[in-house]
Amino acid sequence: MAELLPLDPDQLLTTTRSVRKRLDLERPVPLEIVREALEVALQAPTGSNSQTWHWIVLTDPELKRKVGEYYARSFAVYSQNQAPRDETGQRVASSAQYLADVMGEVPVLVIGAIYTGGDLPAGNQSGVWGSLLPGAWSLSLALRARGLGSAWTTLHLAYEKEIAELLGIPKGIHQGVLLPVAYTVGTDFKPAGRKPLDDVLHIDGW
């Protein structure tokens, strides 16, 4: 069992960041550590306790390289359509560009997917993704507790069909998130700046 960082629950929740430039691309990540974190993630809730999620863990260099190429292609389009950014936005953009450049070199890629049996519903899809995304976030937290970092990404979904064919993902399984996983350079992450609670809090109505 991996040694856990000395973080209380609030520290874990407030210091689990999207890690990009501080991903250690050189240090191998044992598959057993990823499995251990996924065992924790499987305790997350799913609608009607359906547990229809699937987790595709990539360690093969060639598969990672190909997924990384799709991701970089999608990021190039995304970045061209972004409005001018302030200083904070520029830092985030630089970090995101770095991740796009090295996605295929990250030690482990994890794709979270869910069984739907067919096409996604045309209307509100919260019932679908609400049965996958809590588990993916729990995975991020479990990785952080073990000294690893990840970054929540979805840009690969522009090429969901191609990646499904590459990885042999059957029809009726929809991908929802891609998490690059690596040990972090240092573990001293801090809470991020956020809007004041009262700016977004509504009690008994809007």
UniProtKB/TrEMBL annotation:
The keyword Repressor does not apply. CDD domains: Nitro_FMN_reductase. GO terms for molecular function: oxidoreductase activity. Keywords: Oxidoreductase. Pfam families: Nitroreductase. SUPFAM superfamilies: FMN-dependent nitroreductase-like. Residues 15-182 form the Nitroreductase domain. InterPro entries: Nitroreductase, Nitroreductase-like. Belongs to the nitroreductase family. This is Nitroreductase family protein. It comes from Gordonia desulfuricans.
